[in-house]
């Protein structure tokens, strides 16, 4: 169950990262509220995950999922540039996340 919690935490990390863009420095109420709630949910699920997973692994996977998802959403939502090198390094990040999952103690 810890890995499910960690995936949820990572996805909510991406939600709050994207929310920061929409909140425009916390000057817009509802995007700011969504961002803060997503932060709390993300940290809550991370806390549940590290009850049984090694903290270093959990933190690396959490940030990796958040970074990967945020980068993809940046391309989709904000038309950020995508080119071969960016795809290559995002795939390396994904491989790293998967590798950490399969080499973790729990």
From TrEMBL:
Which GO MF terms does the UniProt record name?
transmembrane transporter activity
Entry's transmembrane regions: 33-50, 57-78, 84-104
Tell whether Calcium is among the UniProt keywords.
no
User: Is Acyltransferase one of the keywords UniProt gives this record?
Assistant: no
Which Pfam families does the record cross-reference, listed alphabetically?
A: Multi_Drug_Res (PF00893)
Q: Which UniProt keywords apply?
A: Cell membrane, Membrane, Transmembrane, Transmembrane helix, Transport
PANTHER family to which the protein is assigned, alphabetical: GUANIDINIUM EXPORTER, SMR FAMILY PROTON-DEPENDENT DRUG EFFLUX TRANSPORTER SUGE
Q: How does it sit in the membrane?
A: Multi-pass membrane protein
Q: Name one GO cellular component term.
A: plasma membrane
Renumbered to this chain, the signal peptide range is: none
Q: Which GO terms describe its biological process?
A: xenobiotic detoxification by transmembrane export across the plasma membrane
Instruction: Indicate the principal place this protein occupies in or around the cell.
Output: membrane
Its protein name is: Guanidinium exporter
Location in the cell reads:
Cell membrane
Regarding protein family, the annotation reads: Belongs to the drug/metabolite transporter (DMT) superfamily. Small multidrug resistance (SMR) (TC 2.A.7.1) family. Gdx/SugE subfamily.
In terms of InterPro entries, this protein maps to: EmrE-like, Small_drug/metabolite_transptr, Small_multidrug_res
